[in-house]
Design goal:
26% of the residues lie in helices and 43% in strands. By secondary structure, it is an alpha+beta fold. It starts with a strand and ends with a helix.
């Protein structure tokens, strides 16, 4: 089971569904019923993380939050507050795409 999320630079995220065709990607934000298109800049299939350049000029990340949860549980990473959670998720995404 996968729970894919789009993660913006300000660490806001929304649940999505997406389709990949070569390097082109079509993203549907489920809560807003909004459609976005872009190109994959970087990807890591092992950690299930993508960096996408949207057609409107923004750069966002797409990550499988189930995979991130499993990683945090296996490595006993505990968060004191929401800021700690956001910092660890950003580190996971950035490290995955190095």
């Amino acid at each position: 089971m996968s729970r894919w999320m789009i993660v913006y630079k300000n660490m806001r995220w929304d649940e999505i569904d997406f389709n990949v065709d070569n390097q082109d990607i079509q993203i549907k934000i489920l809560r807003k019923n909004e459609a976005l298109k872009g190109k994959i800049v970087k990807q890591n299939d092992f950690t299930k993380v993508y960096r996408v350049a949207l057609n409107d000029g923004r750069e966002v990340d797409i990550a499988d939050f189930d995979e991130i949860d499993n990683f945090f549980e296996k490595n006993t990473i505990i968060f004191k507050n929401r800021t700690g959670l956001h910092r660890e998720i950003r580190r996971y995404i950035d490290y995955s795409l190095q």
